[in-house]
Amino acid sequence: MPGVQHLYSVIEGTWPPASEARVGPWIIRDGQGGGQRVSAATAAAPVTLDDLPLAEDAMRQLKQPQLFMIRDGDTAVDTMLEAAGYPIVDPVNIYVAPVSELTTERPPRVSTFAIWEPLAIMHDIWAAGGIGPGRVEVMARAKGPKTGLFGRSNNRPAAAGFVAIHDRIAMVHALEVLARHRREGLGRHMMRQAAFWAADNGATHMSVICTQANQGANALYSSMGFTLVGQYHYRRKG
């Protein structure tokens, strides 16, 4: 089973920033409006409080929030940022499962599809869930095998998602089910569609991330046999 450090690289590979730069001991990401994951700074070497202004100034120059991602092993950075007045934001769970365990049952016919480029209705579904053009641009930047996911329920457009592969691990992002079609089993069908696409494109495992506050998504992934392998969280000032 892939470990959490491996999956951090999969997150980066399948949901990439517009650019990144080394500033002292920090990696500074230019997210171009693509959300926290592509805009957060991380420590690439040991840091002290004296190094903090370097990252803060670099993020101000990009007109981005002063935002840091804290991963496994970043305890010293976490403690430093807490002391500097940065509260925790959005703790995230990271799940993974072998693709072979997710491809034992196909979704119902004409319920889910793997489509690239995304259809206009997929953009509309993402927009309804707050996934705007900046995040769609992240999808366009991803290298390697990738596809959109489109779901229908009761013969109506109902869900959209994105999956890409990095180092033989497929990761699902931006999975959105319209509110009126939730609790109809479509999230499970979309994940199985992603798994069959991943198998066809050489992936051995499939991963997904979600905030710890999203109880429904966490319950879904656990019920499908995904293993919780790690977490990360952000610290953000202001």
Tag the structure with descriptive keywords.
Aminopeptidase; 7 helices; single chain; eight-stranded mixed sheet; 2 domains; 238 residues; alpha+beta; three-stranded antiparallel sheet
Write up this protein.
- The protein is of the alpha+beta class and 238 residues long.
- The protein folds into two domains: 4-93, no CATH class; 96-230, Aminopeptidase.
- Helices cover 30% and strands 33% of the residues.
- The chain contains seven helices and eleven strands.
- It has helices at residues 4-14, 52-61, 75-83, 120-128, 133-141, 186-200, 215-223, and strands at residues 19-23, 26-30, 42-43, 66-70, 88-98, 112-115, 146-153, 156-166, 169-177, 205-211, 227-237.
